[in-house]
Write a structure and sequence with these properties.
This protein has 531 residues and is an alpha/beta fold. It is built from 14 helices and 26 strands. The strands form 7 sheets. Strands 1, 10, 11, 12 and 13 form a 5-stranded mixed beta sheet that branches. Helix 7 links the parallel strand 11 and strand 12. Helix 11 crosses helix 12.
């Protein structure tokens, strides 16, 4: 199907308002998150021949997963995620195509359920027919006012001229922006307002200059090649009069969505991913096709600068990354904390980067009183459908925000921190929120598609033996599309898991560790080698 993202709001490929979930308290980040980009690199990327897809179809690897098994795995991941009440959701899978029905309380939860389902091995597509039924109805006038205020308050979206209309709790956006990334940012801001049950995105993307098809093709190929989130070895890129066609194979639906998102560069009118098939059983070596060969520090630096130039959260700032042996040290000045976190995410998701030290300075352009910042953060918490503002206490001292109180989930804790980081004048966020965890489950790897710091919650799984934890970790690794579990050994003693063996990427390294915690480990000793 030919896909014009303006018709669908890009809810599946990307979600820019969840992009800043890095911890400000620590300058060091290790691990993957949001895709990088390298559109301006000089060397072209050779496209694999179409028959390469067929060569990846090793008969022994084509054993088909059962639809019932896939449906159960989706339900398990939704349970771990904790955002959706699985008692209100029905899951059916036919030939790898998952259908979700039921009810949730907000639009972000609906989008998240679809994304979680798309991260399960064997899922080729997701049909999302979940209904959004807010527990507290908000008037159309109230939603319109909140969306307009949210757009004005967003550090990256405040300059856009966007018209907002609301009818029966469905928001219609119109206006003009200069990139697909800007369109997605606006779309996600609207989705993040309490009471919204749907978004119709009629915003026009107006790029400043005409571009040649081969120029667009080369930029997309480079973006795919440098993005940690996509194994691009079997992806062909074709461009005809601004319409991009991606064909070939990827290892998961998550990679397919990321590839579609990365293809939305300047000059693109639409992206067709009909011919890009999800083949979870394909050989990873062929899907990668030498993607993770050694990169020079100069190449990594250039790729990071290219990524920053395309991201509306950070493109206005002059950043000075330094790269030594794959380790990135970020320097420069930004005027908001979200931008600082966003650039760290871009760095950690660029191929070749092994870690990040974030020394970017946050220096707000306009001085605000601590009282004004407190009111701003409290307003954001009240408008968000993901947070209960009455349970969260906000204090600000010389621009440093402190959150305390109790929340229902790890996701709500992180969302509260993200919202605080978006407030103008905030230079640091200390998150002291306690999670009222009843079942010991924690937030899964890369929950929003953007950078994810490891925030470990160690709750003893009641009555579970080491063998049970071992088996749960084994299942988590098997169903993850991010991990090749064949080369990972698991040992569990007194609830403490040790992972040994090898993985191909730092992203896989982090994902395996997250899977071990999801399986119930109290502590994970990650001894995996990245080869």
């Amino acid at each position: 199907m030919s896909h014009d993202p303006r018709l669908f709001g890009l809810s599946a490929p990307v979600g820019a308002t969840l992009a800043a979930c890095l911890l400000a308290a620590s300058p060091v980040l290790i691990g993957p998150g949001w895709p990088g980009s390298a559109s301006a690199l000089a060397q072209p990327v050779a496209q694999p021949p179409a028959q390469a897809v067929a060569e990846a179809e090793a008969p022994a690897a084509q054993a088909r997963l059962g639809d019932r098994e896939i449906a159960d795995a989706i339900e398990d991941q939704l349970l771990i995620d904790g955002v959706v009440d699985v008692n209100r959701i029905d899951i059916e899978v036919e030939d790898g195509i998952a259908s979700l029905t039921g009810q949730v309380g907000n639009l972000l939860a609906k989008d998240r359920a679809e994304r979680v389902a798309g991260r399960v091995k064997g899922v080729r597509a997701v049909g999302n027919r979940i209904e959004v039924t807010p527990s507290v109805m908000v008037s159309d006038a109230g939603i319109k006012r909140s969306v307009e205020e949210a757009l004005r308050a967003d550090p990256a979206a405040d300059a856009y001229e966007i018209d907002v209309a609301v009818q029966n709790n469905v928001v219609t956006l119109s206006g003009r922006v200069q990139s697909w990334a800007e369109l997605d940012l606006v779309d996600t801001v609207a989705r993040s307002v309490r009471g919204v049950i749907g978004v119709v995105n009629d915003i026009e993307v107006s790029t400043p200059d005409e571009r040649l098809d081969n120029e667009i093709r080369d930029e997309i190929a480079q973006r795919l090649r440098w993005a940690v989130s996509v194994e691009d070895g079997l992806i062909d890129v074709a461009v005809d009069d601004g319409v991009v066609t991606l064909t070939g194979a990827v290892g998961s639906l998550e990679e397919k969505r990321a590839a579609e998102s990365l293809a939305l560069v300047s000059g693109v009118d639409a992206v067709d991913v009909t011919g890009l098939e999800v083949r979870w059983w394909a050989e990873r070596a062929m899907l990668r096709d030498g993607k993770y060969v050694d990169k020079s520090d100069a190449e990594i630096r250039r790729a990071l600068l290219d990524a920053a130039a395309l991201d509306p959260r950070v493109m206005a700032f002059e950043l000075e990354p330094e790269v030594a042996g794959g380790w990135v040290t970020l320097r420069g000045t930004v005027d908001n904390l979200e931008a600082k976190r966003a650039v760290a995410g871009l760095a950690s998701n660029t191929v070749g980067v092994t870690g990040v030290t974030n020394r970017v300075k946050v220096r707000p352009e306009t001085a605000r009183s601590d009282a004004a910042i407190e009111v701003d953060i409290e307003s954001r918490l009240a408008v968000s459908p993901m947070t209960d503002a009455e349970q969260i206490e906000v204090a600000v001292d010389e621009g440093a925000a402190r959150l305390s109180g109790s929340v229902d989930s790890q996701l709500e804790r992180r969302e509260a921190e993200r919202l605080a980081a978006k407030a103008r004048g905030v230079t640091r966020v200390t998150n002291l929120l306690q999670v009222a965890h009843a079942n010991g489950l924690r937030e899964p790897f890369d929950t929003s598609g953007y950078p994810s710091m490891t925030e470990i919650l160690r709750y003893p799984p009641a009555g579970r033996s080491d063998r049970e934890i071992h088996d749960e970790i084994h299942d988590e690794l098997f169903w993850s599309p991010f991990v090749d579990s064949d080369d990972i050994d698991i040992d569990v003693t007194d609830g403490r898991a040790m992972l040994t063996g090898s993985v191909a990427t730092w992203r896989e390294y982090r994902a395996a560790e997250e899977n071990a915690y999801e399986g119930g480990a109290l502590f994970v000793s990650n001894q995996l080698k990245v080869e």
